[in-house]
Amino acid sequence: MNAAEPVLAMRDVAIEIGGARVVDGVSITASAGRIVALVGESGCGKSLTALSILRLLPKAARFTGGTVELGGRVLSAMSEEQLAGVRGDEVAIIFQEPIASLNPLMRAGEQVEEALRLHRGLGSAEARREAIAMMTRVGISDAERRAEQYPFELSGGMCQRIMIAAALICRPKLLIADEPTTALDVTIQAQILDLMRDLRQSAGTAILVITHDMGVVADLADDVCIMYGGRIVESGPVDAIFEEPRHPYTKLLLATIPKLDGPRKVDLKTIAGVVPAAGTWPDGCRFRNRCPLADEACATVPPLVEVGPDHDTACWHSTRVAELA
Amino acid sequence: MALAESPQPLLQVRDLKVHFPLRGAHKDATVKAVDGISFDVPAGRTVAIVGESGCGKSTTAYAVLGLEKPTSGQVLFDGRDITHLRGRDRQALASEMQIVFQDPSAALDPKMTIGDSVAEPLAIAGRPRQERRRRVAELLDRVGLSQTFAARLPNALSGGQRQRVVIARALALSPRLLVLDEPVSALDVSIRSQILNLLLELQRDLGLTYLFISHDLSVVRHIADDALVLYLGTIAERGPVDALFEAPRHPYTQALLSAIPLPDPARQRRRERIVLKGELPSALDPPVGCPFIGRCPISIDRCARVRPPLVPCPTGTEAACHVRAPADGGVVGL
């Protein structure tokens, strides 16, 4: 693969549920060895966007526009059979609930081996050897014994490692991680975040991580895409997003979080209103009914425009966002 | 009891133990969910209980409320022993202490209107219809919801609005103590600050006392006065929130604090992080000595044999650690 060519290129992806555009014109690129965070609150379309890469959308959702490319090949134009060859091989995915995502009737080791047997046609002894090696690499001590255990015999953190080992066994070019640490305790979360960083470094995997936790974003991501109401409202390098956010939603979202060194017991900044249910957005800018900067200009959809190096925002008033201190 | 000048704490917990005997294959084993915890909650203050899953934080709260039966120890409310109150006596306490649960969607009956849900404690307490209606209007206003919400069903509300309803219901009988069990964990990030602000406002206006259970340490630091850090059913460290966050002494508290990623990429890159090895051990078979021994980076021989007591540290917290807070008053290692 050409070094300059991104591993993942999503262009103008649109997804509809019952006529509502729940993902509207989303473009994301991820290069080898980079971690891109897709950030947003419930109903913003972040998980649907991620699921659409491998055509894993729920039945009610329809992919209605745009393209998904993997290393230059158009995934969104592939037949189901071709795509099956990509899933779990070149692109792997890990989910939020490790225990619910593993097969309860299969031993941990078999689940890690499965992709190797399917995609590489390895025999059982060889597959098991590789599975044990991968399980050890993701921090599972005593991997040979663990491989014989069922998910119910393992803790949440251990199940998440099993799922990660299974996802990595074919050395994917792209790893999609949907809230990979949300269900875990913080000391276990720290271990999993370390593991993902290590993987990016040693294997050059491109990682798309979906999260709502700004701490995880700050800790892990190189690039950030902020989603609101099915659209990307701001994207850019992690430092620019945190230090100089140029969309009111990003700015306010960061300001609502209590800081570990801020004043205590004082009122925190809030964002007016409620997180809208999918499809109940206003016309034009979908954030405008909660935005303190909104005016009549916002009745027209703002395009994503460049406001800094690799830093884009979709706001008619991006020059005034700094006022929202 | 010492002749303290400060008034008696509203809630006092003394050497609380909650053990669950197992059946079947583990017939002789006991899960020591809470294993000897003592703390005070002064009136009008917020005490947080923090820790990871299985540390006993919710079980402690449930034992305070009488939802779990303590194996031993005492719970005193306003100086009165309520540990073993049952039946009508326990029910009478509903006007003194209430709980707000994590998931407001599960805490509301989907078929009951918001008004009926908020009025339910009043109905059970036998308040007349007229008073109930007036009080519901007052409560909705108090938590920042318009009167039109009274006629709606929970499914017409957002998560944040539902949590406001749950808080209104908890306040119906004007309790003095609220147990808040992860009250913002299930909410969207942009909504959490609204609810935290509401809780702070209610405390200022009504003089409420909070027992605040959370795994989110930045939330705890923001809202609490004092905090207990639990590990495997025992207190690893406790103290005023300022001291606990600025100068934690127990290696577990230090690891826990360093493991929370800060929403600040530049600082996060510079931070030294202590990544603990291993997993939380099972409360089914806790270690004999220090519960933290299996994951502790600084343990000594003594830790395997003797459980460390809580010892005051010069930095303002009390820690249960033979190395960092030796009981013999020896030199405190830095």
Report on this model:
The complex is a heterodimer of chains A (325) and B (334). The model of chain A has no long low-confidence stretch (mean pLDDT 92). Chain A is 32% helix and 22% strand. Chain A is of the alpha/beta class. Chain A is globular. Chain A has helices at 46-53, 80-86, 98-101, 108-120, 124-137, 143-146, 156-168, 186-203, 214-220, 238-243, 248-256, and strands at residues 8-17, 20-30, 35-39, 61-70, 73-74, 91-94, 174-178, 206-211, 223-228, 231-237, 305-308, 311-313. Among the domains of chain A are: 103-170, no CATH class; 243-323, no CATH class. Chain A has eleven helices and twelve strands. Chain B is of the alpha/beta class. Chain B has a domain at 11-96 and 175-319: P-loop containing nucleotide triphosphate hydrolases (Rossmann fold), CATH 3.40.50. Chain B contains twelve helices and twelve strands. In chain B, the strands form two sheets. Chain B has an eight-stranded mixed sheet, with helices on both faces. In chain B, strand 11 and strand 12 form a beta hairpin. In chain B, helix 4 runs parallel beside helix 6. Chains A and B meet through helix 7, helix 8, helix 9, helix 10 and helix 11 of A and helix 6, helix 7, helix 8, helix 9 and helix 10 of B.
Strand content of chain B: 15-25%
Uncertain residue segments of chain B? none
* Poorly predicted parts of chain A: none
**Regarding CATH, which class of the domain at 11-96 and 175-319 in chain B?**
Alpha Beta
Task: Summarize this structure as a short list of keywords or feature phrases.
heterodimer; A: 325 residues; alpha/beta; eight-stranded mixed beta sheet; four-stranded antiparallel beta sheet; 11 helices; 32% helix; 22% strand; B: 334 residues; Rossmann fold; 12 strands
Question: What is this structure's SSE topology?
Answer:
The complex is a heterodimer of chains A (325) and B (334).
Chain A: E1 8-17, E2 20-30, E3 35-39, H1 46-53, E4 61-70, E5 73-74, H2 80-86, E6 91-94, H3 98-101, H4 108-120, H5 124-137, H6 143-146, H7 156-168, E7 174-178, H8 186-203, E8 206-211, H9 214-220, E9 223-228, E10 231-237, H10 238-243, H11 248-256, E11 305-308, E12 311-313
Parallel strand pairs in A: 3-8, 3-9, 6-7, 7-8
Antiparallel strand pairs in A: 1-2, 1-4, 4-5, 9-10, 10-12, 11-12
Chain B: E1 11-21, E2 30-41, E3 46-50, H1 57-65, E4 72-77, E5 80-81, H2 87-92, E6 97-100, H3 104-107, H4 114-124, H5 129-142, H6 159-171, E7 177-181, H7 189-206, E8 209-214, H8 217-223, E9 226-231, E10 234-240, H9 241-246, H10 251-259, H11 265-270, H12 301-305, E11 311-312, E12 318-319
Parallel strand pairs in B: 3-8, 3-9, 6-7, 7-8
Antiparallel strand pairs in B: 1-2, 1-4, 4-5, 9-10, 10-12, 11-12
